[in-house]
Design brief:
The chain has three helices and no strands. It is mainly α. The radius of gyration is 23 Å and the shape is elongated.
Length: 83
């Protein structure tokens, strides 16, 4: 299946996009796929955040978050050194 798309873009943008090969059909398809993936990932992130925010209990302080991150990094470094 094929669709023809007409865009109304400024001349300078068209010139640059053509020089970079961004207006070719395969490249346009790739750009659309990438954008759809980004939007899907954004929607998934929003869902996860909504779920986290709905959990009972107090939110961690920044100090607690920093401590958790440092602990995870230390654990990862310890595992990597054991290899």
């Amino acid at each position: 299946m094929s669709v023809t798309v007409e865009l109304d873009l400024p001349e300078g943008l068209i010139r640059q996009a053509r020089q970079m090969g961004l207006l070719d059909s395969p490249r346009m398809a790739e750009l659309l796929v990438q954008e759809m993936r980004r939007r899907h990932a954004g929607q998934e992130l929003k869902q996860v955040l909504d779920e986290i925010r709905s959990l009972p209990g107090e939110a961690l302080t920044m100090d607690e978050v920093d401590a958790e991150i440092k602990a995870c990094r230390a654990e990862r470094r310890a595992r990597e050194t054991c290899r």
